[in-house]
Please model this.
Amino acid sequence: MLWRRRRAPDEVLEQAGTVAELTRAAARYFREPSEPAAVSARSRARAALDEARTAQAALKGRSDWLAISRSLGELADQTGRAVAQAKLYGVERQQRLARVTLELRETAVALGQALRHAGRTSRCEEHLVEAKRLASSVDEALVRAREASLDDPREVAGLKDREVIRRLGEAAEAAHAAADRLAEVLAVR
Model:
């Protein structure tokens, strides 16, 4: 594939960094659920959504980068909502979700690296492929988590688990969309 040498706008780079910080805080919450970890994740989610609004306002008329920004914003929104719902519902057995959010964090970091290297073909492509691979890994882990929640004899607990899992699945889908859109922006037709 031939690539254009285009630098990512600073607004999108900043947004990607904020999303990576949010996914790191979410992974920390699911690894060790506590009120401070939940507050940290919520404040990072608000910061990521504010960053998304700022980036989208600055990118008006640049539909290519605007689509990437919207996908990053959706990733942030769904990750923040997953943490909020897990805290609200008192979701137990969170180790499974901790692994998922760690992979989601790695996906966000790989997307950020791809954006930073948008002007350097091979490096960008390498990070894009890694982001797609990691997002697919998140999808697979979420399928296993969903199956485990269906086997839970406590129906209400299973429903709560599945709602959090659904949010994380939508975050992974947003990561896929951001990586796909970045590849489209940089590809020479």
In short: The chain has a mean pLDDT of 87. Residues 155-186 form the longest helix (32 residues). The CA atoms of residues 40 and 150 lie 30 Å apart. The helical segments are 10-31, 35-58, 63-89, 95-116, 121-150, 155-186.
